[in-house]
Design goal:
heterodimer, A: 6-stranded antiparallel β-sheet, elongated, B: mainly alpha, 75% helix
């Protein structure tokens, strides 16, 4: 059964004076998806979410919520709502009153409101005596849950999130990421989440949309974003990565100081005949011992070694002045002296080629 | 360490504390003492009695008080409704233009209140700016617009405008934008946002502005004298008369004490209902 997508955006554009914040945004979100929009600050993701919830009007383009066109509908008339970056809890209201707010607005009677608030407290694993607590008495993580409960009390078609976890410390953020994913599964609602952290997006999302300068750079599953980035920008966004230019030459592909096997072009899947960028993740690299071979090899000197707990990270200066990053599991770490000569190798089927367009 | 800080704080506050006690509290105590003296005496060396307070009811001074409080209440209510949109604009919309409005409103305070009120007398009186022009153009004259209760309230509204505007703007500035947006996002209409979010969160500013205007209006004399032409007698006028023409200091003191008591009670109730530290930008 193919049902209507819950959200459909076509040709969305937003200009502020001369500045174009968003351009040519097309997106279709199926019901029940957890979609994360990721981008650096200034990429237009906040502008986009403000258009989607109705706090701003687009300069051009259309937004459909199921079969209804909503791009000119103000926020308070849309069946969607958002968890703010600041959470935007009402400081003059108790936890219970905050959660009940959308129900009160709708004229639900006090008993039913209270019953629903209690349900939501339980759903978000907050003790029921929090009902009467003041917002100021809650910790960061508890406030987060209250904001979520309030949004769920609204019973939105789509729940939007504007970086709600960014102000929390690392451990709490990790816990809440998983809770949020769990909540998504339990409620079955459509979640659209924005963040600048691709790591956060990876943990939670069904699909990730990478934004850059007001456009979508790539929309794909987390695995595909990681393994097959469409551009250098996407590749670099996901933390450490080695990008190596490859160009076809008379004797097969050449890639700076990297020695490649003769059929490297075919192994990498090069089709256009004018090169591209090889994306080599640090964990794909291994140190080669005397006489060991690999499909791609390169010589350099060990510049630095960092212990990351379960893994060790190495920085290697190549002879042509560029630097590569390699990562090993702790038990595979090498016993090498800083400044000493090392040889790195990797297999071509474990790296990805971004072809020049 | 904290205790040392406290002691140092108390110590530095001492000079101004003494000054305030002498210049502020002492006269108040003298007035309180005079209010329980027998009528028409000029020193405190008499057996206390409460005859001056009895005069308040017997001579109908309570009517003056009722007029004062009533008009002060009306002026404060009108000021609140009038200033809210402008204060809202100053706090949230106008941005740098707010400075222009602030300067314009503050400039009016540079000219004495009496002179400004005389300006209105010239504008509103029979043969004045308005009636004169109307008569000139239409041939039909009318009585001036002065000497009635509404014009006194108008005068109060005009004079105490800044005292409502600025605290209100300060109060509205404390309403977080995201709380407003979140309320709207959760389905609240403009009115619901006003009632549920903006009014309660701006309450400290509303209370401060309301108290200032009410207290000042309740004790005001010039508006009723100049614009009202004694259409009604206000309590401040009675106090002045008792001290001057009446030569009855105990009566003047008793009337003052009654006014101070009512206003003081209101002020304490009002101030205790809001968190003034938030208005002053301290705490959270």
């Amino acid at each position: 059964m193919t049902s209507l997508p819950i959200l459909r955006i076509a040709g969305l554009e937003k200009r502020f004076g001369d500045f174009t914040a968003l351009q040519g945004i097309d997106l279709t979100v199926p019901e029940g998806e957890f979609l994360t929009i990721v981008g650096p600050s200034g990429s237009g993701k906040t502008t986009l979410i403000r258009l989607l919830v109705g706090m701003d009007e687009p300069s051009d383009g259309t937004i459909w919520l199921r079969e209804k066109r909503v791009d000119q509908v103000p926020a308070n008339k849309r069946p969607t709502c958002m968890v703010f970056q600041s959470l935007a809890l009402f400081p003059h209201r108790s936890v219970g009153q905050n959660i009940e707010f959308p129900l009160k607005i709708r004229g639900v009677d006090a008993a039913a409101r209270r019953a629903r608030a209690m349900e939501l407290l339980e759903l978000l694993r907050l003790p029921s005596d929090y009902y009467a607590k003041r917002i100021q008495e809650c910790s960061g993580g508890e406030r987060q849950r209250v904001a979520l409960a309030r949004a769920l009390a609204f019973d939105p078609e789509i729940l939007f999130f504007d970086e709600p976890l960014s102000a929390l410390d690392y451990r709490l953020r990790k816990t809440l990421e998983k809770e949020l994913k769990d909540l998504h599964e339990r409620t079955g609602k459509t979640f659209i989440y924005i963040t600048h952290s691709l790591e956060e997006a990876m943990v939670m999302s069904d699909r990730i949309a990478i934004m850059r300068a007001g456009r979508f750079e790539q929309i794909a599953t987390p695995d595909e974003i990681y393994a097959r980035p469409k551009s250098r920008f996407v590749a670099e966004f996901m933390g450490e990565v080695n990008l190596i230019e490859v160009t076809p030459g008379p004797g097969g592909l050449s890639a700076g100081g990297v020695r490649l096997v003769p059929d490297a072009g075919a192994r990498l899947g090069l089709t256009n005949g004018h090169g591209g960028t090889m994306v080599v993740r640090p964990e794909t690299l291994r140190f080669l011992g005397e006489g060991e071979a690999a499909e791609a090899t390169v010589d350099g000197r060990l510049h630095a070694e960092y212990a990351l707990g379960s893994r060790h990270q190495y920085e290697i200066d190549l002879d042509d002045g560029t630097r590569m990053t390699a990562e090993m599991l702790r038990e595979d770490r090498i016993d090498a002296r800083l400044g000493g000569a090392v040889r790195l190798g990797w297999d071509l089927d474990r790296c990805h080629l971004i072809e020049d367009r | 360490m904290e205790r040392a800080d406290r002691r140092l704080g108390l110590l530095t506050a001492l000079p101004i504390g003494v000054l305030l006690a002498l210049s502020f509290l002492a006269p108040l105590l003298v007035v309180a003492a005079f209010s329980i003296m027998p009528q028409k005496v000029f020193d405190l060396g008499h057996m206390p009695d409460f005859s001056a307070y009895a005069e308040f009811f017997r001579q109908g001074y309570w009517k003056s008080l009722a007029w004062s409080l009533g008009m002060a209440f009306a002026a404060t209510a009108i000021l609140f409704v009038l200033c809210w949109p402008l204060a809202y604009g100053m706090a949230k919309v106008f941005k740098r233009f707010t400075l222009v409005i602030t300067i314009a409103v503050v400039m009016t305070l540079f000219v004495s209140e009496n002179i400004r009120l005389f300006g209105w007398v010239l504008t509103l009186m029979k043969g004045g700016l308005i009636e004169g022009h109307v008569r000139h153009w239409t041939g039909e004259g009318f009585d001036g617009l002065l000497y009635n209760v509404p014009v006194i309230v108008f005068g109060l509204v005009y004079v105490y405008f800044p005292f409502m505007l600025f605290p209100l703007a300060q109060g509205i500035a404390m309403v977080p934008d995201d709380a407003r947006q979140a309320a709207a996002d959760l389905g609240a209409t403009r009115w619901q946002v006003l009632r549920e979010i903006e009014l309660p969160l701006a309450a400290p500013g509303i209370v401060v502005g309301g108290l200032l205007c009410f207290v000042l209006s309740a004790g005001a004399i010039a508006e009723s004298k100049l614009l009202g032409g004694q259409a009604v007698i206000v309590i401040g006028d009675d106090v002045e008369t008792a001290f001057t023409y009446g030569q009855n200091w105990p009566l003047g003191s008793a009337l003052s004490m009654i006014l101070i008591f009512i206003i003081g009670t209101l002020a304490i109730l009002g101030v205790s209902s809001v968190d003034l530290d938030r208005v002053m930008g301290r705490g959270r």
